[in-house]
Write a structure and sequence with these properties.
CATH superfamily of the largest domain: NAD(P)-binding Rossmann-like Domain
Number of domains: 2
Shape: globular
Radius of gyration: 18 Å
Largest sheet: 7 strands, parallel
Low-confidence stretches: none
CATH class of the largest domain: Alpha Beta
Mean pLDDT: 97
Number of strands: 7
Strand content: 5-15%
CATH topology of the largest domain: Rossmann fold
Strand order of the largest sheet: 3-2-1-4-5-6-7
Number of helices: 9
Amino acid sequence: MERTLEGQAALVTGSTSGIGLAIATFLHRAGARVMLNGFGKPEEIAAARAAVGDAPHSPADMSKPAEVGAMVANAEAQFGRLDILVNNAGIQFVSPVEEFPPEKWDAIIAINLSSNFHAIAAALPGMKQRGHGRIINVASAHGLVASPFKTAYVAAKHGVVGLTKSVALEVAEENITCNAICPGFVRTPLAEAQVKPLAEKHGISEEAALKDHLLAKQPSKRWIEVDEVARMALWLVGPDSGGVNGAALSIDGGWLAA
């Protein structure tokens, strides 16, 4: 991998596993210094840090605005700069809307949407001062289309896409870009754990449960791999992507084409 990000510094939220860790790893391999963020067992966080060049880790809770702002300030203090911000932290809860617990709604909006705003607001002054910045918000196919029983998640991810566009317009003349990545179903441990219960529920094989139920809306009938998302992110923060701004880029196996 070319070291196109040599000398740059990045912060990736929700990066102790899954998509966030893959993005952080790719940024590190391309030469960036990276700060990780997220929860997990001490040994899991240690393994993630080791995979990203013994990267510093922030335990900031993305549901708490003050902690989000302090995390950004900490990254700038440690690195002397912050060129790249990837807002990836997110949670999910599934329920009929009339049964949706209000506290779950509040948590999803706070972590999946509001944390993006707070991190961007904290990072932008330094990016403007330095005349360069790249912001990526990891949204979802559900930022562009809806599914039932995911009210808060769909609302939050639609909000992320709107936030992305608005910020992009504000910084369009600043050599700063703000884009959203909208993945479909990505192979992560949490996603894969849904397959066996679906198979048992419907009395079918796990392969059938995956293709006919979990990936029913994904025409490719295969997982999106975390490295595929990471490669898209790496290009968006690289030297050849400055003309892409305010985009919501799908990586969903054809879901949005249907």
